[in-house]
Amino acid sequence: MVERQNIISRSVSFYKPSDNNTMKNNYWLFLLILLMSSYAFAQTPAHTTSDSLMPPVALTAQQDHARILKLLGIDSLRPGPSGNPKAPNAANSDESKANPYPELPDPLVLNDGQKVTTPEMWWKLRRPEIKEYFDREIYGRVPSDVPKVKWEILNVAKDTVDNIPAVTKKLSGHVDNSSYPLISVDIGLTLTTPADVKGPVPVIMEFGFTFPANFKMTDQMKRFIDSLNTWHQLVLSKGWGYAILIPTSFQADKGDGLTTGIIGLVNKGQPRKLDDWGTLRAWAWGASRALDYFETDSSVDSKKVAIEGLSRYGKATLVTMAYDPRFAIAFVGSSGEGGAKLLRRHFGEEVENVASSAEYHWMAENFLKYAGPLTPKDLPVDAHELIAMCAPRPVFISCGSPLVEGNWVDDKGQFMAAVAAGPVYTLLGKKDLGITEMPPMGTPVIDGDIAFRQHFGGHTTGPNWPTFIEFAQRYFDAPIDKKK
């Protein structure tokens, strides 16, 4: 402010009026304009600089977890079961004990008890109620002031994938951090499309895993990873493209990363509020920003983009599909608790595990209270309603054999959620799963708009890729319904 006053003083002394009346009038006019300009300048916020900002709060996951319990007025949480079947507190695998809370929230009954009987009631009344519960209690709210993303193509390379000519673009989504320059966020993304196909093509985008830069990969590990990526060739052979989104490039998968990444940037390095978004919704936000880019790329049919992920990224896949209606189809792999598995189930991983300091960052802070003093029975929504939020778009639920993958992801709990989501699909004129009894392992259930298959392998989507592509082809080969 002192500097602005000095500028005015120097300007006034430089422009001395003469005895001429015209010059005197000009002098006072000049002075008035100068004062008005100074006032306008004073009302303009100064550009944020790093020197004037507080650095991000540094909290371990345990410290942040304890902070949340204090905010919720909770002394402690119930411990979750162990994934080790030989441990004293091993997770339950006895189906006779798996459903202590058999009554699920009805996705077609309003909070006031009124039955939902028309699609209009679903869209205008019931779905907003369900979404609000997921926002506040489960996954958290995405803030309204999330900065814009500017996409940059870093590299374009001609490639071959199992002798199929392709073009791969490496991209970076730069998030505007002018509001808090102490945190930089960039979204990592690659897009591969068949080189010999003219016109826009459908694309399947995967939440991809990455390894640290100094990670030493053996030849055996490389062959194993390559075997998991055989779906790339399957997709390209159909004339489709694929994309790999790196979720940890913009939000770390750990509790001590919540004051950095996109969540930390929006919060200016401060801890979350009780209903702030967790990592799953942050990853889903990044997937939506990738879809924003696809809408500008002439090689992509942005109306036919699928989203796929495994395990924690299977959870993120279902959350993405539920919240962004632009995605055409979802391939949800072994998502377990917090994904397609019913939260009320006492089988495998449970609410208490996800609420622990090891996994709580995936969810809204409010979620922790359902691990003490509340119980899963008190949850206002469950996984079947997250699947229902995807309706009428197709969803494929995938899991492996409990003999190989184990019981942690609860394959039957995922199947039950798919069945319970069916009435919403039926209301909207689509086909439900078509069965209510768990099918034999390896049986594809893909005649409806909700699909399910339990393969014979382990914690992977690999064996289910051919079945999913068959399922997806029904939609990708169909003309776009412009009414949707």
Mean pLDDT: 90
Structural domain tally: 2
> Quick one: CATH superfamily of the largest domain?
Alpha/Beta hydrolase fold, catalytic domain
- Regions with little confidence, pLDDT below 50 for 5+ residues: 1-46, 480-484
Order of helices and strands: HHHHEEEEHHEHHEHEHHEHHEH
Account of the 3D structure:
With 484 residues, the chain is α/β, with parallel strands linked by helices. The chain folds into two domains: 43 residues; 342 residues, 3-Layer(aba) Sandwich (Rossmann fold), CATH 3.40.50. It has a nine-stranded mixed sheet, sandwiched between helices. Helix 8 packs across helix 9. The N and C termini lie far apart (55 Å). 42% of the residues are buried.
Q: What is the secondary structure topology, with strand pairs?
A:
Layout: H1 2-14, H2 21-43, H3 61-72, H4 119-138, E1 149-161, E2 164-175, E3 186-194, E4 201-207, H5 219-228, H6 231-237, E5 241-246, H7 261-266, H8 279-294, E6 300-310, H9 312-323, E7 329-333, H10 351-354, H11 383-388, E8 395-399, H12 411-420, H13 422-427, E9 450-454, H14 465-476
Parallel strand pairs: 4-5, 4-6, 6-7, 7-8, 8-9
Antiparallel strand pairs: 1-2, 2-3, 3-5
Helix pairs in contact: 8-9
Provide a concise account of the structure shown.
The protein has 484 residues and is α/β, with parallel strands linked by helices. The protein is built from 14 helices and nine strands.
